[in-house]
Amino acid sequence: MTPSDTPGGRGGRWSDLERPPLVEAALRRALVRPGGLWTELDVVQATGSTNTDLVTRAAAGAPEGAVLVAEEQTAGRGRLDRTWTAPPRSGLFFSVLLRPGAAGVPGERWGWLPLLAGVASAGALSRAAGVDTALKWPNDLLVTVEGQERKFGGILAERTGDAVVIGVGLNISLHADELPVPTAGSLALAGAVSTDRDPLLRAVLRSIEEWYGEWRRFEGDPGACGLQETYAAGCATLGRRVRAELPGGGERVGEAVAIDGDGRLVLATEGGVQEPVSAGDIVHLRAVS
C-alpha cells in the first residue's frame, strides 16, 4: 500500500491530515467585523477560478470586501491566460473584491493594486512563516529553495466596471514531486516554520487590509503611502539585467533600475536610454551583484 492509499496519506483527496481544511466560520469570526474591510467570506471546496466567480458576483453588486477562498481550483488563471493548478488544500487560492473608486481613488492609480497585494502578501508570509520572500515584477512571489529562486505565488487583478478583483495563488505545502514545473517552489520547500493555512490566510488578508487602507487614505498615491518604496525594497528584479518579453511580441533588454510612479518597471537599455515597461514577462538574466 502506498502512502496515498492510506487514510491520512499525502495523496488522499479529502483525508490528508497534513492539509486540514479551512474552517469558514472561524475565518469569518476573525476577519469580518464592523468597520473593517472584509464584509463577507466564503470557502468553497472546489471551483474553476475564484477570480471568475468573484467577477460575476461583482457584476451582480457584491460589496467591497467580499472574499472567496477555494480549497481547490480546477481552472485557476494567471497572467496571459496561463493556468494555475495544485493539489487540494496544498495552498491558498483566494480572490478579494475592491471598489477603490468609492474612496475617491482615481482610476489611473488602480494599476497599483496587484503590486499592493504582492507587498502585503510577501510581508505577511515572511513574518508568519519565517521565510524570506521577494517580489518579481510585476506579479510573482519568490522564495529560495536549495539556493535557487523559485516562484511560489502569483497575483492576477481584473477590472470589472467600478470594481477590481484580485486573485492570489500561493503554494504552501507542496512537496517536490507535486510541483507543476521544476522551477516552482513552496513555503514548505523553503523551510517555513509553519504551513498551517489558517493563520497564514489571516495574516495575508489583514496585511492587505492595512495596506489598502493606507493607499486609499492617500487617494492611491503610491509614494505618499509608502507603497512604491516598499515594493522597490522587496523587488528582486531591481538591480538585475533582465529581458522583458512584451505582449504581442518583441522584447527589451536592460538593467531594471526603478519602479516608477505608475508601477512600471524602468529599464536602462543600451545607449543610456531609460524605458518604462508596463506589461510583460520578465526573465532575470543574472543574479544581483
Provide a descriptive summary of the structure in words.
With 289 residues, the chain is of the alpha+beta class. It is 22% helix and 27% strand. It contains five helices and 14 strands. It has helices spanning 24-31, 50-59, 113-129, 197-217, 227-233, and strands at residues 40-44, 66-70, 76-77, 83-84, 91-98, 134-136, 140-145, 148-160, 163-171, 241-245, 251-259, 265-268, 274-277, 281-284. The strands form three sheets. Strands 1-2-5-9-8-7-6 form a seven-stranded mixed beta sheet, with helices on both faces. Strand 10 and strand 11 (251-259) form a beta hairpin. Helix 3 packs across helix 4 (197-217). The longest helix has 21 residues, at 197-217. It is globular, with a radius of gyration of 19 Å. It starts with 23 loop residues before the first helix and ends in a 5-residue tail after the last strand. Residues 1-14 have low confidence and may be disordered.
What secondary-structure arrangement, pairings included, does this model have?
Layout (H helix, E strand, L loop, with lengths): L23 H8 L8 E5 L5 H10 L6 E5 L5 E2 L5 E2 L6 E8 L14 H17 L4 E3 L3 E6 L2 E13 L2 E9 L25 H21 L9 H7 L7 E5 L5 E9 L5 E4 L5 E4 L3 E4 L5
Parallel strand pairs: 1-2
Antiparallel strand pairs: 2-5, 3-4, 5-9, 6-7, 7-8, 8-9, 10-11, 10-14, 11-12, 12-13
Helix pairs in contact: 3-4
